Amino acid sequence: MAKINPYQPYPVELIKITEESPLIKTFTMTAPPNFHFLAGQFVEVAVPGKGEAPFTPSSSPYEKNYLEVSVAKVGGVTETLHSLKPGAILGLRGPFGKDYPLEKFAGKDILLVGGGVGLAPLRSLFLSLIHELKRFNKIRFCCGSRTPQDFIYKNHILDLWQNIDPKVCLRITVDRCEEKDCWKGDVGVVTKTLDNLDLEIKNSVAVVCGPPIMMKFSTFKLLELGYQPENIYLSMERMMVCGLGHCQHCGIGKYLVCKDGPVFTYEQIKDEPEIWA
Amino acid sequence: MAYHKVKTEAWLEAIFRQAKERAVYGLKRSGDRLVYQRLREPTEVVLFETRPTEPIKLFFYFPSETTASLPEEPFREEEKRVLLGVKACDLEALKTADFVYRLGDAVEPRYYSRRNNTLLIGSDCTRPNSTCFCNLHGRFCYPQEYFDINLSPLNKEIMIETGSPRGEEFLAELNLNLTEVTAADLKIRDKNRRGYLEKLKTINAPFEHQKPYSEIVRKSNNAAAWKKYGQEMCVQCHACNLGCPTCYCFSFSDLSEKNGVKRYKSWDSCLAASFARMASGATPRHSRWERFRYHYYHKFDYLNTALGFDACTGCGRCIEGCLGKIDKRQVLSDLEKEING
Fold first, then answer.
1. Relative orientation angle of helices B165-174 and B8-19, to the nearest 10 degrees
2. Measured between CB atoms, which of B250, B254, B297 is closest to A49?
3. What pTM value is reported for the model?
4. Are B101 and A276 in contact (CB < 8 Å)?
5. Mean local confidence (pLDDT), B3-7
6. Distance CA B341, CA B337 (A)
7. ipTM associated with this complex
8. Nearest CB neighbour to A8, from listed B68, B282, B284
9. Quick check: B268 and A212 CB within 8 A?
């Protein structure tokens, strides 16, 4: 009894590395046997001897043989991860936490708002949505980034996903760009792309993921547009160390992001202290 | 479950016999404090008095220990052992740790094994410290549950109360010459216990409060006391976290060693600036007072909601160890005054 060690990572192989932007790479790794996650859940990826960090996979949950995480080079673990080559062995634990409740999204207009590396979980969600497109109404994916160079999943966002289906529309913007960038999208913060939405707000859900400041202002903008707090889904980021509700690093008020989240409705957490980091 | 009586010397002799066969930890004097010692041969053991300086969690989750490794190492069951003289505050603290590590969806196998292999012999706290405040929580300084065996002093004898089948078995193994407990004995024990509580009441008279601590903390979101104590007095030494028998937060550190990679699980402190810091460098609790408030919120609000009682047992180690001279009782009193306007 109780001999399974939940802190023990499962060894997986790094099979592909894709450079998305100067700071962000997508790492493709083999999936452990019987591994299955749902969009919005997160995994703990360990770089042996360096440490472990939480990531929400950016690949489709329907891919059974591999999973992908997109990682910004920001700290010790991620810096080492960025220096690895295919063939390296990583550790994997998870999946942990709650996923996006797609059953509640059925028959509704869906608005995805993402910025920077926050597009990673939304990519996984987007891939889930287009996998069963007929279940949902319109899909609007608003993507923001600091500069055109910082945009991740360029091939998909700027090209492949643009004409996927008449029900699907992508809006893209960058905070700033220079003339030499030849940027064809909008310029401005991501909240600007939320103006003139052709969605039936009353029958719509919004999903937000990105840096804290972007999430805060996007949420306020969505409220202004008439979204009810229970229809705004936020992918909260915290320092999830164990993923199991043991270590307490990821507390938001009475909630633990690793167990009760990372997907929360704004209604759930709006009265908790310190929600915007 | 059942009451018995035994002579103190006979009890100690039996315990020392046991100590030859398995790990038995008892309390010894160190200055005016008590600490745990492994009993190997007959020596002076304190059966009652007060709680030791170390929190009981030291026996169940260590300040730093290997928790995983690559390649994976086989799981080993923990050794059988006996803790003697555990006070009510420490027994109560195990309820919080059990909730987190033993009874949730994800069981911590080492904790589970240590808990299952540890026999808990509690004892009445007859000499509360000046920092003890279990009574302010509505708790008692003598164990009423969560023990395998509990001891109460009865002149030159000990009253033994068994609290679990495991405790009964252990008592049978000791092969003692037990005598029946009379109604008069129980009366004496209860009178003694009222006496200990009276001492506590005297110690804590300045900190009496009307509302439950959970309600006080829940209503104190913007109280000035957080800044006074959390910002001006707290020096972020983490002594309150480390000494607390219910604090269970931890971090991992992965290190490459000779035989592969080891993952260490080490106690962490919610008062540390790095505690909630994310990879991007952002943290939801920038200021010391916000982290200080979180410490209270976690114990008196969030865990109270989950457990049904405060995750503070009033052992007073946080007061005893605080380098900033913060008295938790005073903080809570001040908060109550503030919410009462």
1. 100
2. B254
3. 0.93
4. no
5. 96
6. 6
7. 0.90
8. B68
9. no
